[in-house]
């Protein structure tokens, strides 16, 4: 062993950098033996750390003794100087926001803490894989041994199980310099935080919810600009009213089944804006997108696509739903998987696959759309099925009449473990405006073509 260098802090750096692999791909005892073997052969400790990290497929970033790399015992690094993809960095930051959520980690459910941290140089998103007990929003913390990654081009700070976190006095850190990311509403995506959004409030209403057993009033609605619209939830009464044009600083994005939702609380700043936005009637329209764009976003709220119906799937046509109150599951062989046998209530639906050349998505359309596309109501369908002694006749009619045709479909696109699901609100045969199409074609031709 090297007599002049204490290897313990550097082995701790290794375990922090490789914590995602220890216990699954790497045994900690083997890692220690590998580290000590390098030192026995006289390899400098910094070089040993770099070599082992590289051997296990982790970019060492900077040597543990490098000022910006975050060596054990080193002074803290300001947020605007923190590099991405380094295994160890020390920070002195304030918890600007603090939220919890449950995720799947290594096949098990785990509650993590996430939000924004800030110092006098700016803010950055963080994820803590360990509880932050006794710490609240606004607290100043000294963090030893955080590691960083890059996600969608943005610095992400992580607190692992081996990270040391100590609460400090409030005046230990100067005022946080909050830097907001200005985004158009149509570009809002899952996981974004610290946003500045300007839009027109299309609608807003209050509702009561329970938060940790306590009643709380929250305010939900829709905000829009020319690029799109999004549902929002305000956890504080900011005095929002329909048709207002406002700028909201400090919002963050969560998704429900793949549909992004904009959230903000009492820490957000909401001010009247003088932006020249179209009236609410013009903004309250579905955004036309491609299925490829929806696939990249992972869902969408009130969108419209033009696509072909490639297939009418099994389970379409005439179905019967569970009669129990609050349950609308489709009966299979006359049974609900929760409530058993029952006299089901008749319904109509379409299950299919839409494709527009850029992507495909599962489709579900309800009774009203199905009746319109069939050209008859549910009573007529029931009569025909009874006369034919089989319900499948309605699905066969749908397959014949609507498969392979192009439709304009409007609704919400949700995401789950089975992929994207388009819940259609309207679905009508698409009729191209030939005059506009011709004008667009001519506009795209080179001058020498005339």
Provide structural commentary.
The chain is an alpha+beta fold and 450 residues long. The chain folds into 4 domains: 8-55, no CATH class; 79-172, OB fold (Dihydrolipoamide Acetyltransferase, E2P) (Beta Barrel); 181-283, Nucleic acid-binding proteins (OB fold (Dihydrolipoamide Acetyltransferase, E2P), Beta Barrel); 287-429, Nucleic acid-binding proteins (OB fold (Dihydrolipoamide Acetyltransferase, E2P), Beta Barrel), CATH 2.40.50.140. It is built from 9 helices and 22 strands. The chain has helices at residues 8-17, 28-40, 45-55, 280-283, 291-297, 367-374, 378-388, 392-402, 434-443; strands at residues 89-105, 108-119, 122-128, 140-151, 154-159, 164-168, 181-182, 195-211, 214-225, 228-234, 245-256, 259-264, 269-272, 287-288, 300-312, 317-321, 335-336, 340-341, 345-355, 360-365, 406-416, 419-429. The strands form 4 sheets. The protein has a 5-stranded mixed beta barrel with strand order 1-2-3-5-4. A 5-stranded mixed barrel has the order 8-9-10-12-11. Strands 15-19-20-22-21 form a 5-stranded mixed beta barrel. It starts with 7 loop residues before the first helix and ends in a 7-residue tail after the last helix.
């Amino acid at each position: 062993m090297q007599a002049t260098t204490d290897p313990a802090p550097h082995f701790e750096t290794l375990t922090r950098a490789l914590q995602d692999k220890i216990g699954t791909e790497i045994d900690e005892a083997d890692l220690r033996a590998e580290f000590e073997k390098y030192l026995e052969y006289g390899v400098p400790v910094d070089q040993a750390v770099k070599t082992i990290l590289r051997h296990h497929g982790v970019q060492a970033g900077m040597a543990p003794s490098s000022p910006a790399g975050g060596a054990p015992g080193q002074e803290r690094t300001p947020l605007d100087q923190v590099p991405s993809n380094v295994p160890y960095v020390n920070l002195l930051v304030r918890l600007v926001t603090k939220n919890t959520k449950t995720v799947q980690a290594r096949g098990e459910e785990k509650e993590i803490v996430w939000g924004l941290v800030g110092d006098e140089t700016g803010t950055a998103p963080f994820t803590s894989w360990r509880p932050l007990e006794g710490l609240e929003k606004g607290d100043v913390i000294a963090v030893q041994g955080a590691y960083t990654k890059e996600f969608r081009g943005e610095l992400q700070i992580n607190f692992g199980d081996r990270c040391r976190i100590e609460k400090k006095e409030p005046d230990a850190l100067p005022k946080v310099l909050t830097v907001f990311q200005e985004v158009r509403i149509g570009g809002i995506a899952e996981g974004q935080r610290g946003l500045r959004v300007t839009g027109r409030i299309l609608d807003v209403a209050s509702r009561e919810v329970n938060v940790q057993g306590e009643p709380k009033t929250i305010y939900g609605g829709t905000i829009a600009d020319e690029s799109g619209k999004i549902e929002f939830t305000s956890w504080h009464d900011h005095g929002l009213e329909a048709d207002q044009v406002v700028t909201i600083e400090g919002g963050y994005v969560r998704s429900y089944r793949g549909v992004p939702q904009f959230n903000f609380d009492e820490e957000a700043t909401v001010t009247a804006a003088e932006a020249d936005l179209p009236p609410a009637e013009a903004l309250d329209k579905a955004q036309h997108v491609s299925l490829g764009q929806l696939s990249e976003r992972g869902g969408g709220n009130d969108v419209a696509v033009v696509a072909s119906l490639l297939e009418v799937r099994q389970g379409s046509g005439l179905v019967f739903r569970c009669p129990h109150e609050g349950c609308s599951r489709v009966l299979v062989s006359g049974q609900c998987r929760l409530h058993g046998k029952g006299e089901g209530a008749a319904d109509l639906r379409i299950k299919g696959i839409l494709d527009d050349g850029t992507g495909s998505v599962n489709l579900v359309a309800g009774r009203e759309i199905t009746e319109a596309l069939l050209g008859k109501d549910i009573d007529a369908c029931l009569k025909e099925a009874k006369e034919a002694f089989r319900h499948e006749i309605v699905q066969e009619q749908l397959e014949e009449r609507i498969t392979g045709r192009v439709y304009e479909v409007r609704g919400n696109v949700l995401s789950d473990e089975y992929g994207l699901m388009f819940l259609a609100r309207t679905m009508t045969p698409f009729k191209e405006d030939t005059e506009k199409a011709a004008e667009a074609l001519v506009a795209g031709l080179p001058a020498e073509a005339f």
